[in-house]
Amino acid sequence: MGVNPMSQSSVSYLWREPEAAKGFKTGVSLHSHTNQSKETLDFISELSKDWGVLQPVMRWCEDRCQRLSGIRPNYAGSYWTPPLTPALAFDLERKQIEDQLQLPGLVSITDHDDINAPMLLRSVPSARHIPVSVEWTVPVGATAFHLGIHNLPSATGAEWMERMRAFTAIPVETREPGLLREILAELDEIPGVLIIYNHPIWDLYRIGKERHDVLVNEFLAVNGQYVHALELNGLRNWKENREVATLASKWNQLVISGGDRHGVEPNANVNLTRAESFTEFVHEVRRERQSHVLFMPQYAEPWKHRILQSTLDAIRDYPHFPEGSRRWDQRVYHPDSNGTIRPVSELWKSGRAPAYIRGILGGVRMMGAAPLSGGLRMAWNEAGEMRATLTKLDA
Question: Cβ neighbours of residue 333 under 8 Å, at least 6 residues apart?
Fold first, then answer.
């Protein structure tokens, strides 16, 4: 277990330390998504830019889609939603903590720019104390950063959400200087609010690592006093999380967990705490400057294999789920010929996806089936990356 003497962060791995949760009172799941979260489809067009061989295939698919439906794919105007409803997501995260760690579980769900999931869950007796939390998209220069804003006051949560959405919508070039700092300072003044810089090293908007790193450090130089921790992300790779630990040390920041779950695998890391409520946990992080991160066994699986599994979760059908979440094409949304956003299941002329789309998805699903899945897992083994990270975080 490694400890930073300045910030008192510690990192443990359940597969190496089966008793890591002993002495703690609660496990905390941070940063996971539900079907209330709108996830961009821009990455599809970006993939074809990175992999030139895909470009003619993509163009063929787009032309065929236009011929069959009269609609040309609009990736920027489309989105998909994760398969789990708020209730299913909450139960999945809490159950992992209770079953694997034998501790009560606290769960903070952070959908993209939306607090609907926690507000809905507050009407469910088992989840009535769930914090009102969100993953806020913050445009900065040529990119955008994602901030986990946890435990907003329930009475003013909707007002805060509208204010954050309004900020996100302002073009960077016309935004009033200092506005972001002002908002973060006001959030920081609320004792129960926790502000986490999610996956800070990830160049999500693909502006180039060097440029991204400059903006990250500029952001922390200006706003770091209002950020309470940097996230070790359960869905990012070993190398990237090592870099987050280095960045946190540079800025004397805590590191904290954040699973970033989008599929049906529970978060690959959690926080361990001696607090018994989420507000007490926030106090432990903000005032006592304590954070105890525990990586769960699934994080030891090869990263590429886990990304594949998360992708498969997104395109699977779940017949036992509530209506509207059962089929993958009910969870993907695209503008119709009039520009109205609708589930793509409503756009198929025959009532089902065209054969070429079913063929493409079938090929992806084969990668997750035995014996091909087992072969890919072996090919993607990351033992060296794991050892390097364990050494770095244990130092």
Answer: 38, 78, 79, 80, 81, 341, 342, 343, 344
CA 47 to chain centre: 20
d(CA 359, CA 57): 13
For 261, list phi and psi in degrees, rounded to 5.
-70, 130
Residue 254 sits in which domain range?
2-37+82-301
211/365 Cα distance (integer angstroms): 36
Going from the C-alpha of 244 to that of each of 322, 349, 386, the distances in angstroms are: 38, 47, 15
- Backbone dihedral region of 293: left (phi > 0), alpha (psi from -120 to 50 degrees) or beta? beta
pTM for the structure as a whole: 0.88
pLDDT digits (tens, 9 = 90+) for 217-235: 999 999 999 999 999 999 9
Asked whether residue 57 is domain-assigned, the answer is: no
Query: What is the distance between the alpha carbons of residues 131 and 154, in angstroms, rounded to a whole number?
Result: 8
CATH of the domain at 94: 3.20.20.140
